[in-house]
Amino acid sequence: MGGRMIRVAVVGIGKMGVSHLSIVRAHPDIEVVAICDSAGYVLDVLSKYTGLETFTDFKRMLDTRDLDAVLIATPTASHVPLVREALHRGLHVFCEKPLSMSSGESLELADLARASNAVTQVGYHNRFVGAFQEVKRLLEAETVGQVTHVLAESYGPVVLRTKGNTWRSKRETGGGCLFDYAAHPLDLLTWYFGAPVSVGGTVLGSIFSPETDDEVYSTLRYPSRVSAQLSVNWSDESHRKMTTKMTIWGTKGKIVADRQECQVYLRDTATLPEGYRHGWNVRYTTELTQPVWFYLRGEEYSAQIDYFVRSIQAAANGSPRDQQNSFASAAVTDRVIEMLTAAAAAGDATESAAPAPTAAPRRTLFARRLALTTR
Amino acid sequence: MDRLLFGDNQFFGVNHMSEEKARAQAIRFEDTSAIIDVLDIAYAEGVRTFMCTTHERIAEVCDHVRSNGDRYPGFTFFPCMPYAHKYANAVSEYGMLGALREFVPDEGFINAAMRGSRALATKDIEGLVTLLIDAEMKMFRDLSTPVIFLQNVVVDLLLGLGFDEAFRIFADHVRHRYGAEPGFITMNLPSLLDSLDRAGIANPIVCSNFNKLAFRVSGGIDAYSRALAERQFRPIAMSVFASGAIPAREALEWVHEQPAIESIVFGASSAANIRSTVGLVKEIWDEASVPVLA
After folding, report:
1. Per-residue pLDDT tens for A116-168?
2. Which structural domain, as residue segments, surrounds residue A16?
3. What is the ipTM metric for this complex?
4. A270 and A137 in a common domain
5. Are residues A271 and A148 in the same domain?
6. Which residues of B touch A21 (CB under 8 A)?
7. How far apart are CA B95 and CA B120, in angstroms?
8. Which residues of chain B have a CB within 8 Å of the CB of A302?
9. Distances (CA, A) of A109 to A119, A179, A320
10. Looking at domain B4-284, what is its CATH homologous superfamily?
């Protein structure tokens, strides 16, 4: 591409879209040609104050503007037709997560992208977090030996009462804790362990949302007898913002990682990577994080955009690279989401056949209280 | 501005190193009286400026200082707005426009309501932005707020968007309505200075990371050093200890070698840490020749 600016349009100017727009517009190798959204207000404000050209018709924008890539941050249910259209026109595509609500369609998009030599990327930004990258390095080096179990958690304060009326509050438009929150730890599991063999004991629970889930729990089984437990709740007010944490047990040690730090316990049987010792080790974000040219909310958001830019440049120079967070990889995570949805609907819990034991502590306590109040 | 400003991240579970530590701090400061106890220690050590988020719990600190004014002569707030998470969560819940409607004050002032609805209809963000600023400033009424900051999440979002006009609107409103200097917190100092230039804001107060490790100095430490040497602005350093990654003396001596830096904002939860930081600053900046603290 030899120094030419990459011409990008941002589609969907909501919470993630506006943040992406800020980051891409600050990127020295990107020219934001236009923005597109179906709703007028934010679009009009941006047009008036930032001089960006705006469209409400995606196809008209593609018809009339010369683009290299689009960044799509619309509600999940609209991803497939937009991405398909962009790929048909030979554009590179960055799409917000999850890629789609059907792994079949995600795979179709991945095939389409391969056929058109498009660079594709999905916004699983945790793969650009230094601490989670350190986990990947440690797993590839088998530092904690054979992994037996993983606990993958995400919590945050998104839905705290029965209210709200956006696409995020309905499952059919891609809203809910599974699509929005659980997708992140599930994608980290995909990155670390590949596709699961089975899922079971899945709970998609509603706490406050009438039309979608607010909590997701499941047991996933991966090849090589790795089991994982998923615990995700977006109605947890005790967290200031979303937090994602991975805890990994292996035969030679244990890893605990979140966005801030990577704590590693290594038994004396472990082969030590450089800079590590037996017993506890802590790597903080200050040492794990690579600097970025522009910072908004976290290095990972900028790093993933820069990575997309570098991939497009590499492809233009005839040396495409093995893409991180490609559509093919996101399709695996979409498949896991589908498995969880199906498992939760089927319900695989073993029902209690025998009558409940009479001396169960909770019942006794309840009975006692009842006795007191009726006396 | 004083050499040392006291920050508030530690009170609200913000810790860039550890979520466990952040939670422990949030638990420790669950009662606002615990925050006030720490502020009292800082005050006793000579710290006079509290640079704080417009978090709803700061309103309780404001109430305390207002009703005990005689105990806090010279005590000054540098409000930093907005407390962004409440807006971000509202956007998830209500969408962009719905969230705006949630936060435009509905206290019954016809004037305010008119400003807001007309602003929404005409896409004139000036009315809307000034309403939001006024809503955030309510907790500080009758208190000294000589500098009012826009938080980095908002500053850097606007910076990336190329929304220079918003900085001008903020600066004008803060000056005219509150008689205060506008301040800007950023993680992208070099490019923000260009943007403030374009917005016509001369010699701005800008708070950004400055530390020996170059931790979160986006644009690179060289660009930051050049900005200090060549640009006309009033720098405040934050993250000078890089969340504890740099020993205190080493960190402060490095800042001292950057004479353009006017002030340092630091957070601490213990008397020992506050005393040692104040002591080091007095020693390194040579209190006899430089007025370190008010």
Report:
1. 999 999 999 999 999 999 999 999 999 999 999 999 999 999 899 887 678 88
2. 6-125+296-325
3. 0.90
4. yes
5. yes
6. 160-161
7. 15
8. 218
9. 12, 18, 18
10. NADP-dependent oxidoreductase domain (3.20.20.100)
